[in-house]
Amino acid sequence: MATQHSRSAARIMLAPAVILLLGWMLVPLIMTLFFSFKKYLPLRGGDLGWVGFENYVRFVTSSSFWPSVLTTLVIVGGVLVITVVLGVLLAILLNQPMWGQGVVRILVIAPFFVMPTVSALVWKNMFMDPVNGLFAHLWKFFGATPVEWLTQVPMSSIIVIVSWQWLPFATLILLTAIQSLDGEQLEASEMDGAPPLARFAFIVLPHLGRAITVVVLIQTIFLLSIFAEIFVTTQGAFGTKTLTYLIYQRVLESQNVGLGSAGGVYAIILANIVAIFLMRMVGKNLDA
C-alpha cells in the first residue's frame, strides 16, 4: 500500500514537467501541421484559406528540393567521416601519457563550446578569406595563388567548418570508451608479437564500435538541421543550400509560411527516417 502511495506521489510530482515537455514538443509540431495546409502570406494578404496538400506538392516538386536533400546528406556524411576518423586518432593520442595532458584535452574539446555562428565567422574571416585569411598568407608564402574557399570549394569548406566544431564531441565520447578498454588485452597481444596495426584493428576498433555508433547517431540528428554555418558563409549559394536553409528561404525570404511549414514536415520525416535507420544500426551493435 505504501509503495503504491509513493508511486502515485512520484507521478504527481513528475506530471508538471512531463506536461511542460509534451507541450514544448507538440505545440510547435501541431502549429506546423496546421499552417502546412493553409496559404498564409503574412505580408501579402495574411490567411488566404485552406489549400490542402498543395503546399506539400509545390515544395517537393520545386527544383530546389531534391538538390537540397542531397546537399544535406553529403554534408552530414562528410562531417561524420571526418569526425569519426580523426576522433578515433585524437582519442588514442590523448589517451597516451604526456606532459600537460589535462590542458591539452581541454584545448581539444574547447571548439565544441563555440557557437555555430561564431565558428563560421572565425573560419570565414580569419582562415578562409582570400585576401587577409591565414590560408591566403600561407599560400602566398609558398608562392601559390590563394584559394577562394567559399566560392571555389564551398561544400568542402562547410564540411571542414562543421567538422571542426563537432570533432571535440566525437573525441570526448571515443576517449571515454578507450579509457574503459582493458589494458591487459593490449599487453598480452603485444607480448604475443602482434604489431600495433593489428592490435588497433582487432582489439581497439571493435571495443570502440558502440561509442562510434552513438557518435554517428547523435551527430546525425543535429547535423540534419545545419543552418547557421551556411547562413554566415555562403547563404545557400554555390550548391550549398540544405533542406533547412530552403525552408528558411520559403518562410522568411518568400514570406510563405504555409509552404515553409510543409518543408518543415518533410524535414521531420527525413530526420525520422534517418534516426530509425541509425537506431536499428545502433541496436544491432549494442546486441552484438
Name some characteristics of this structure.
mainly alpha; MetI-like fold; two-stranded antiparallel sheet; 14 helices
Give the arrangement of secondary structure elements.
Elements (H helix, E strand, L loop, with lengths): L1 H35 L1 E4 L4 E5 L3 H8 L3 H30 L6 H9 L6 H12 L6 H8 L7 H4 L1 H26 L3 H9 L4 H12 L1 H15 L4 H6 L9 H11 L3 H31 L1
Antiparallel strand pairs: 1-2
Structure description:
- It is a single chain.
- With 288 residues, the protein is mostly helical.
- It has a single domain (36-286), classed as MetI-like fold (Orthogonal Bundle).
- Helix content is 75%, strand content 3%.
- The chain is built from 14 helices and two strands.
- It has a two-stranded antiparallel sheet with strand order 1-2.
- Strand 1 and strand 2 (46-50) form a beta hairpin.
- The chain is globular, with a radius of gyration of 24 Å.
- The two termini are 41 Å apart.
CATH class categorisation: Mainly Alpha
Helix content: over 70%
Along the chain, the helix and strand elements come as HEEHHHHHHHHHHHHH
Biggest sheet, open or closed, and with what strands and sense? 2 strands, antiparallel
| The CATH architecture | Orthogonal Bundle
